[in-house]
Design a protein that fits this description.
heterodimer; A: 332 residues; mainly alpha; 16 helices; B: 295 residues; MetI-like fold; transport (chain B); cell membrane (chain B); transmembrane (chain B)
């Protein structure tokens, strides 16, 4: 309990000390600024602004995240000492139980790697699917048609994520439309188990986040002056080089933004793997869920969650570096 | 020339396939809602029926889930919209050096997987509850309250982005003029800033409610013993199911279609009104210029 208190106080202190450090460096100036802030907004509005942002940043973003990380280093198992720090939740992910035959926890590591690699795959697939559409809408259609297309794009996403996954289950199930049609045409003798083969899941994942890929790319390409494409074409550039040298470099922030969102959502997806995943293959988020609600070890679940969060942060940083964009351009 | 034509048809074909991929599964699901077999089947059509809609209307779990979802959505709107507004207004007033850090912190929930937001909210409030020695039926352990908090963590960031984009077009001199004329800060806030931001407040509230209503990943962890529409749905789908879920999808599509069309009409009207107002203002300015010239 006292540990929790100390973490909590540290956060509050950090939020209080940050402006005070500024004060120390230049007391008069900082004082003035503080007064101007209040003067500019009035006491009531200032209180509202600072209060709301403090609740959000302090109590909803920073403190819970820090506490989750702290919690992941505790022994949360029944009978464990909840006050002592330990690395065993993380070492379990890598090495498993001591009594296991294998040195490494192959099952969980495999699932983790599969989740990350498959999410990268889903991201690439979504990009390949969406880029042509985004380009076509941004450069080749006019006002009214574009709006119509955009509404058509948004429409399926008004339907809940779970119902969308359900639709894919109807499509890919063993008595689903695809199997019935293929068997009716005499191509198949017996149904293919798309769900067991995870095909349904990958299709469902890349379907689920199409919108988040199309829109950033569309927004980026839309502001590209069509004359640039004409000029490249007049100078004899083939279509693929126009895309490679003109359109894609210009649309880089949009592509980076779309890729980050789709990767993050795929790696963190829970509904689609739960509904469309095969019975023998799990997604990393499903293991986290199991630690919380069937394994009953919240600390270990938090440790796994932090590993997932860390991977996502690495991916975001890699994308930012690779596309040379900053965070402001990513989150638009 | 023929290669151009081929390319054109290829593009058309691609777009047709893309939208087939987009709508096909949903249309098939819609069909199963009206087909009689107990396992959702699109083809062959056995017998057209409406019975799945009445099954849906009598599903107590689902109704309870929908009710909870509505309450949570309402709570999120009440929490996330004011927070998003405050965060957006503060953005321009944060010291330049701190601005990028501030921005990084407030958009980070958008780049964090939903499950992690749910987990961190759950463990944090659980510990807060232990710390203040709260009862098990207090807010610290209430699924509804925690869901509102957990969802608002990232929905506030959406709201903030909406407000930021609207604020970019705000003319600061209006505020200064009002202050010069003797208005108080609170008056400026209520009579100038809020009316200017009204369309953004509407969009933010709408988006916040919808995002909350559809959220699954965060809610699954924070909701605990309670249920929402999405958790009820996911439970049903995982256990195998009947076409009443398809019926629900049909209902949702119909409601949202109406909603989307209304929103679109409203937006067009608003845009037209703004365009008219701008034109009127310009004309008035022209007349004033001309009127002043001879004098």
């Amino acid at each position: 309990m006292s540990d929790f208190l100390s973490v909590f106080l540290a956060v509050v202190l950090a939020l209080l000390v940050a402006p005070m450090l500024q004060k120390n460096t230049d007391t008069v100036w900082a004082n003035l600024r503080q007064i101007t802030f209040v003067k500019k907004n009035g006491v009531l509005v200032s209180t509202y602004l600072l209060g709301a942002v403090f609740i959000w940043v302090g109590l909803m973003i920073v403190a819970p995240q820090l506490y989750m990380v702290d919690f992941s280093f505790r022994d949360g198992a029944i009978g464990g000492d909840p006050e002592a720090y330990t690395l065993k939740n993380y070492s379990y992910l890598i090495f498993g139980r001591d009594s296991d035959e294998n040195l490494f926890n192959l099952l969980h590591l495999q699932i983790f790697l599969k989740t990350i690699l498959a999410s990268v795959g889903v991201t690439l697939l979504a990009f390949l699917l969406c880029y042509p559409i985004a380009y076509y809408l941004a450069q080749s259609t006019k006002g009214g048609t574009t709006r119509l297309f955009l509404i058509a794009l948004i429409l399926p996403f008004w339907v809940n994520e779970i119902l969308r996954a359900f639709a894919f289950r109807i499509l890919f199930g063993s008595s689903g439309v695809i199997n019935v049609v293929l068997m009716g045409m005499g191509i198949l003798d017996e149904p293919i188990d798309f769900i067991k083969a995870d095909i349904a899941m990958y299709a469902g994942l890349s379907y689920a986040y199409i919108l988040l890929m199309v829109f950033p790319i569309y927004n980026a390409i839309e502001s590209l002056d069509h004359n640039q494409i004409e000029a490249a074409r007049d100078l004899g550039s083939p279509w693929w080089r126009i895309h490679y040298r003109v359109v894609i470099p210009y649309a880089k922030p949009g592509i980076a933004s779309g890729c980050t969102m789709v990767f993050m959502l795929s790696a963190g997806a829970l509904a689609v793997p739960q509904i469309l995943g095969g019975p023998s293959s799990l997604w990393f988020t499903q293991i986290i869920y199991d630690w919380f609600f069937t394994g009953g070890d919240w600390s270990r679940g938090s440790a796994y969650a932090f590993v997932l969060l860390f991977s996502c942060i690495i991916f975001v940083l890699a994308v930012m570096k690779f596309f040379k964009v900053n965070l402001g351009e990513l989150a638009k | 020339m023929t290669s151009d034509l081929i390319q054109k048809y290829m593009v058309r074909f691609y777009i047709a396939m893309f939208f087939l991929y987009l709508f096909g599964p949903l249309i098939l699901m819609g069909v199963t809602a009206f087909n009689s077999p107990t396992f959702p089947t699109a083809i062959p059509i056995d017998e057209l029926t409406m019975k799945w809609f009445s099954v849906l209307a009598n599903d107590k779990d689902m109704i309870k889930g929908i009710k909870n979802s509505l309450w949570i959505g309402l709570g999120v709107v009440c929490l996330a919209v004011p927070i998003g507004l405050a965060a957006a207004l503060l953005m321009s007033q944060v010291h330049k050096k701190a601005q990028s850090i501030y921005y990084m912190i407030v958009v980070s929930p958008l780049l964090t997987p939903g499950v992690i937001l749910g987990i961190s909210t759950l463990v944090f409030w659980d510990r807060l509850g232990v710390w203040v020695d709260a009862d098990y039926d207090s807010v610290f352990y209430s699924g509804i309250f925690l869901s509102v908090i957990g969802q608002s963590t990232f929905i506030s960031a959406y709201c903030m982005l909406i407000f930021l984009s609207r604020l970019q077009r705000f003319d600061r001199t209006q505020e200064e003029a009002a202050l010069d004329l003797g208005a108080t800060n609170v008056q400026v806030f209520w009579k100038i800033l809020i009316p200017f931001l009204r369309p953004a407040i509407g969009s933010a509230a709408f988006l916040a409610f919808l995002t909350s209503f559809e959220n699954y990943n965060t809610t699954l962890f924070t909701i605990q013993a309670e249920s929402t529409l999405t958790t009820v749905l996911a439970g049903k789908v995982r256990l195998g199911t009947n076409p009443s879920l398809s019926a629900l999808a049909v209902v949702i599509v119909c409601i949202t279609l109406v909603g989307a069309v209304t929103h679109e009409i409203y937006r067009r009207r608003e845009m037209k009104r703004e365009a008219l107002a701008a034109e009127a203002a310009k004309r008035a300015a022209d007349i004033a210029d001309k009127g002043m010239a001879p004098v």
